[in-house]
Design brief:
- The protein is an alpha+beta fold and 907 residues long.
- The chain has 4 domains: 204 residues, Distorted Sandwich (Calcium-transporting ATPase, cytoplasmic transduction domain A); 281 residues, Calcium-transporting ATPase, transmembrane domain (Up-down Bundle); 169 residues, Rossmann fold; 191 residues, Calcium-transporting ATPase, cytoplasmic domain N (3-Layer(aba) Sandwich), CATH 3.40.1110.
- The chain contains 32 helices and 28 strands.
- The N terminus is likely disordered.
Length: 907
Amino acid sequence: MKEREGRNRNRTLPLEKPWTRPWEEMAEKLAVSPEEGLGREEARKRRRKYGSNRLREARSKPAWIIFVDQVKNPIVALLGGAAVLAFSFGQWLEGVSIAIAIVINAGIGFFTELRAVRSMEALHRMSRVVAKVRRNSQLQEIPAEEMVPGDVVFLEGGDIVSADLRLMEASLLQVDESALTGESIPVQKEVAALKEEAPLAERKNMAFKGTAVTGGSGWGIAVATGMDTELGRIASLTEEAGEEETPLEKRLSSLAYRLIWITLAIAAGVAVSGLVAHREPLLIIETSIALAVAAIPEGLPIVATVALARGMWRMARHNALMNRLSAVEALGATSVICADKTGTLTENRMRVAEIALPSPDRKKIDRVHLGEEGGFSLDGGSVDPEEYPLLKKALQIGVLCNNAEVDPENPETGVGDPMEVALLAAGARAGLDRTRLAEERMPEVREEAFNPRVMMMATFHETEQGYSVAVKGAPEAVLEASSHVRMPDGNKKLTEEDRRLWLEENNRMGEGGLRLLAVAENESESKEADPYGDLNFVGLFGLLDPPRKGVDRAIAACREAGIRVIMVTGDQPVTARNIGERLGLMEDGGGPVIYGKDLKTPEDLSRQEKEEILKAPIFARVSAEQKLNIIGVHQEKGSVVAMTGDGVNDAPALKKADIGVAMGRRGTQVAREAADMVLKDDAFETILVAVEQGRAIFNNIRKFILFLLSGNVAEVMIVAAAMLVGAPLPILPLQILYLNLIGDVFPALALGVGKGDPSNMTRPPRDSKESVLTKKHWLSIGAYAVLIAASVLAVFGFSLEKLDLDTDHAVTISFLTLAFARLWHVFNMRERTSGFLDNEVTRNPFIWGALALCTGLLLAAVYTPGLSHVLRMERPGRTGWLLIFGMSLLPWMLGQAQKEVRKIRGA
């Protein structure tokens, strides 16, 4: 509430449309001196008034709500009803026991989910940004969340802008606003007031929260913080989109309600038949309670939560952080992955790979290559830039017409646009240092910032003869502005034949997977001259962003797993196709590359156009809005789509996708919060690991449900059969409750946290509409239940008739037979194709721990005086134990036999 009030008060400040006002007026309205900044006490007051400078986060989920969520489960509700029924008829021991079972189950689920929720909250607190502000006339670094309106902020290359700023000074200040506006070119900032109608992308006197400074420096006044920033407004729109239950949540809820109705129907049927047969009302109630307890798998809610939480923790160890616990399972059904090229499929590390220069023979072009570690080479031999004037001139232009900064000790790394960093690194190999060049020999006196309209950038440098103009930009634009070409023996007129030759070279280099940049130069007598008039064309730079190591293998593994990988990029088609071919995305070397401009909404697409989109492995020049169309077409076809993204404008696509995947290193906060999964290492391979875990988790959940229900159905069969023939109950309500408490939880829990079968990734993804339990699984449940029930009923009848044991003694033997039969039954949960002794169940150490624990608890039920009295247990004796182990092993042996037969038949 306080935060909301703070935001409302913030809007009462006279700061409407700050880009239209002089910055001096903004400073006056915010009562701050640009030279002194805010005082410490004033900053503290403003922070109390406006709140922390951060985007709104989901409030910490209180522990009591987490506990209530456990009790709200329909299965717990039915058990509660059974407890009330027991109390109503004076069955105090049964009622108390059921209540204790509810508390124990809810407690396990509570502590498991609490740990998972708190872990996710801790992950959100891991990332902290600092800001440089002037406080008490001193420049100091503070946590960005402590910034307030009126703070005087210093920006320089590499900084993340932490609030919306009205700029006061801008010295070659460039800001990458692609995460906010989608504009890929860094924006050159100014300080003059602008017209009111200026759109967000053209407010050059503003710096916005969440954007990155790529070069230069500047000062600004914070005019908006937290949710009042442009970033905050977009975040508000994103968070308004409600989240639905995942398919797993819906299916488990549906299964729980189905079990409840089945249980009530069985209990009602037993009650009616008992009344018709004039049975004792107390016996009817006791039997109904036994059926209710037997039919409900008490461990289902717990094990589902634990399995999902365990999967989340395992993914976190592999650099995949889950934002929603239940989304872990949805990964297992993923059938399409739409991956961004830069930084996900490639390294996002530019380097100059080739430089095309004019040759003495005007019909040819010299191609200078740069090795990753070595120097320059031409026609297979090394070349020295000092002896090759044209090469040095091209490198010099790339170094001068540049706003990036590199580490002199390691020129390969730097701050700024990756393409400009690569140009500086290439120049450093020729001994060209921008600091010495631009400040000592050829000082920069003017910069013409990159203009998206003309697709070029220029800088003016003072020389003894006047001014030298360095230009770089898109090859087509630079060629169009050039009237001459710089030849080894001087400038020559640029003919139409020359232009055609260089455009062909541009296409050739682009088809080789290189990003192209042209450079040109000119001489001028005035620094106010037109920078793009009568240029002398010098050459082309081909820059390479190499594919990530191992991505090709990961894509091949996806294909084996039945998952399609689609590249979605803003690059030009020829570059995208080249990278796609190198990564194995273009099956058989073909497949269409679709332009983003050709993408319509699914409703506007013809059937043929949809088919083309479904077949396309690469989409080039794609905008954020067009990503929604790609997702929509695939989802309409029934695919489960994972989409990667890193910018604010990717948030809608991350929300729309079945699994939104955000980049942890270069991703924005809005993208990370909109996504279901965050990749700490930005690596495509991590998505594959997460998909593998998602498949394993779903299979584990399916296995433990199969295990739980086959045992519980067997208990229902046992009780119902005894009731129908008028025999004593082979298992008593308290015994069933005790057995379900240990047998439904611990072995099932061990199944739920297993690593899974490696062969899961050699099969196609399951149908997203497929139920947790298919018809085949229900038949298996029935078959296993019949085997277990038959064994227990047989041993019970044999104990009464052949061994002439009293009822309590016979019930003890039948109870222990059921208990151990259910324990051994866990080994029937292995995959049919796995080995008899070596399989995913036998390799699971938690299984062996669970069996040891349950065996100990069963022995305690027999030999601990107080507990044995409550459960009405007798010591079985040697003969009883032989019967117990012999008959309890029978369902396991028959289950294993049918698996081996099916394996031989290939069924």
